[in-house]
Amino acid sequence: MPTYEYQCNNCGYIFETFQSIKELPLKKCPRCNKDTVKRLISGGAGLIFKGTGFYLTDYKRKPPKQENKTSEVKPKEEKSEKKLGDKSTGDKK
Questions:
Q1: How many CA atoms lie within 13 A of 66 on its CB side?
Q2: What is the DSSP letter of 6?
Q3: What H or E segment, with its residue span, contains residue 84?
Q4: Domain residue limits, the chain
Q5: For a tag on the chain, would you pick the N or C end, based on fewer CB atoms within 10 A?
Q6: Is the pTM of this model over 0.90?
Q7: Cβ proximity of 85 and 77 under 8 Å
Q8: What is the dihedral of CA 8, 9, 10, 14, to 10 degrees?
Q9: pLDDT tens string for the chain (93 positions)?
């Protein structure tokens, strides 16, 4: 619901109120009880989004990772060579 700002032309009282867009503007001042209230024109606060999911980066798709087959194979080969080297030396303490 939007917030509207009003000012009484009789006493000068300025106040804000939450109203539905469909409601008619207020006419009676809450301070002096006279029908001299007018709605002020304001820039408003705009929309305020709270919580997650309102940023462009939240829905941005990440490019698929390119798998480099040679980088995956090399560590496996190095590990197997070390295991073979350890068995072939036969050093026992």
A1: 2
A2: E
A3: helix 69-89
A4: 1-42
A5: C
A6: no
A7: no
A8: 30
A9: 788 999 999 999 999 999 998 999 999 999 999 999 999 987 666 666 666 665 665 556 666 777 665 555 555 555 555 555 555 555 555
